[in-house]
Design brief:
The protein is 32% helix and 23% strand. It is built from nine helices and eleven strands. It has a seven-stranded mixed sheet with strand order 6-8-5-9-7-10-11. Strands 1-4-2-3 form a four-stranded mixed sheet.
């Protein structure tokens, strides 16, 4: 049976051309490009909380990296390096090989080097730290939204939550919709290129991980503003699903990893052109209000405010 260091060498040690020194020493050595600052984020995925025990390990490897790249995208940072720490209940080499294949597939797609990490025995738990870089004055932050800004979304929300509901037996999805929702749940696509292009267009941004309403609430709270979401401007709900469930997943489901951002009304033409260039259906779905601070209001097509109590995911709720 392979030991800890053999497993790391076989499955997680690859060339790291963007690092001065990669895996194999006490630390990696990294040098950001001149004139840039580092953006650093970390995410933990715990079996039973963030993924089911029988999740495909290749898909899990992809998602473990993708969710952290989504954080970098929300800041307008270009991903450069990642470190992975994990605990596994047993050294199942087949599982590890498939996990590594998914991880490095995502890393290759976004030109990211895996420069170090750690592996130990314990409940299955994965913790990834991602490092990106960006010009110091261009970071997209949560506190930059301005009253009058449009609110934009980079794609439909709620599909991942529906996929999880299907796996948990709470809903049965037809074959086509099931494939779409499971792909959204297990292989999210971090909007890295969009984040880079939004540096000069958006005032504030966040990635949707805990739910559309919850994450928009973080933006307006830190921006000392309020917000209004118009249901008729959101992407249409999927057919073949009970509408109330679909709406709850859309507004509060989480695990979407789409970018939610605000921009001045004068930028609408630029953002429509960018959507066409990136072949990404950007959706203008609301507006930033001067008050009440931190409040997100949901309105129907007539402008009537709706009472929607479910706001999103909270680990300790």
């Amino acid at each position: 049976m392979a030991n800890e260091f053999e497993l790391i060498r076989r499955h997680f040690t690859r060339p790291t051309p963007a690092a001065l020194l990669g895996p194999g020493d006490d630390c990696a050595l990294l040098a950001p490009a001149a004139g840039t600052v580092l953006a650093v984020t970390t995410d933990m995925l715990v079996e039973g909380t963030h993924f089911l025990p029988d999740t495909d390990p290749c898909a899990l490897g992809w998602k473990t990296l993708a969710v952290s790249l989504s954080d970098l995208a929300a800041m307008g940072a270009r991903p450069r390096w990642v470190l992975l720490a994990g605990s596994l209940p047993a050294p199942d080499e087949s599982w590890i090989a498939q996990f590594a294949a998914g991880l490095f597939a995502c890393a290759s797609r976004h030109a990211v080097d895996v420069v170090g990490g750690d592996l130990t025995r314990g409940p299955r738990n994965l913790c990834l730290t991602a490092i990106g870089e960006l010009p110091s004055a261009t970071a997209l932050r949560r506190d930059g939204a301005l009253p009058g800004d449009d609110i934009w979304l980079s794609g439909p929300t709620g599909l991942a939550a529906l996929g999880l509901a299907h796996l948990q037996g709470r809903v049965h999805l037809g074959e086509t919709l099931r494939g779409t929702c499971l792909a959204a749940l297990q292989r999210p696509l971090p909007r890295v290129e969009l984040g880079l292009r939004l540096r000069d267009l958006a005032h504030a941004a966040i990635d949707v991980s805990d739910g559309l309403l919850a994450d928009l609430g973080h933006v307006v709270e830190q921006s000392q503003a309020g917000a209004e979401i118009s249901l008729d401007l959101l992407p249409p709900l999927p057919t073949g699903v009970e509408p109330l469930l679909a709406r709850r997943c859309q507004l509060a489901g989480g695990d979407d990893y789409e970018l939610l951002f605000t921009a001045a009304e004068s930028r609408r033409h630029d953002l429509v052109a960018l959507a066409g260039e990136l072949e990404l259906p950007l959706c203008r779905c609301g507006r930033v209000l001067p008050a009440p601070v931190g409040e997100v209001r949901v309105v129907d097509e007539s402008g009537r405010a709706l009472d929607f109590g479910d706001r999103g995911f909270d680990h300790f709720a």
